[in-house]
Design goal:
Number of helices: 11
Number of strands: 9
Structural class: alpha/beta
Helix content: 40-55%
Strand content: 15-25%
Strand order of the largest sheet: 1-9-8-2-5-3-4
Shape: globular
Radius of gyration: 19 Å
Number of domains: 1
Length: 311
Amino acid sequence: MSEAALPTGQKLRYGAEAALFFLFLGFFRLIGVDAASAMGAWIGRHVLYHLGWARKAHANLAAAFPEKTEAEREAIVAEVCANVGRTAAEYAHLDKFDMAGADPRIAVEHLEIAEEMRGKGLLLLSGHFANWEIMPIAAQEFGLDGGIVYRPPNNPYVDRFIARARAVKGFKEQISKHQGTRRIFTLLRGGKAILLLADQKTNEGIPAPFFGRDAMTTPAPAALALKLNVPVYFASNRRGQKNGKFGARFTITVHPKLAFIPSGDYERDLRDMTAAINAKLEEMVRAHPGQWLWIHRRWPTARDVVTGKRS
């Protein structure tokens, strides 16, 4: 819904939310990127942790990693909450992140794989790892051309700000996942890259295994790859360290092209390729579990099964 069409009460609520958001970002901008990231981590551990996020993360981790001790899972939850706080604070400084320069904050592993992507129509899939906004910045600096698919925040004022901040160094082409199918097809057919976070919960989709349980998963990446015969690559992101401490520095790992040979049965291939995508995402999460956003409600609960509600 456009801003002009919003009911007055909703406009006021969104305006108040946005004012608070901009106030915090203005403060974070003033204190610099490293201090902002550190303060965001503190807010994550001491505020966000107590807003129910930790409970969701604990439940997901207990099911995904039954072999881990409670203390090990608690350490992951603390890292997740700190990372969310850091990421929010870093929105004030997206223009500070580079792969080059006197003090580069982005490193990329396996650039030889990224070289394969130049000039091709392809899907580059990832998830909510570390600060997920960093990956499009690196892709743009590397020379990939195309667009990102994103889920707009509910608040249109916040959405407009984030889109502008994202476009300073990242891809200018930003496509709402609810409205951009035709544009995605056009870009892929034109030899462009589409960057997409494929780990979000969906109220529609198909069940595919993820950490040993079926999760309702969007089949859109598999459908695009199968219909347009474009390759699927993956990238993951983790926070790097300086002086032994995590902060506003990142290492992006580029993963090889998904090896999938279609059988010719479209429905079967759609299911199998979606499962293969989930398997790769799971592999990336397992490598650095504290860097993924475990608060997603990816799996149905017992109550969902009884009521027929889908995750």
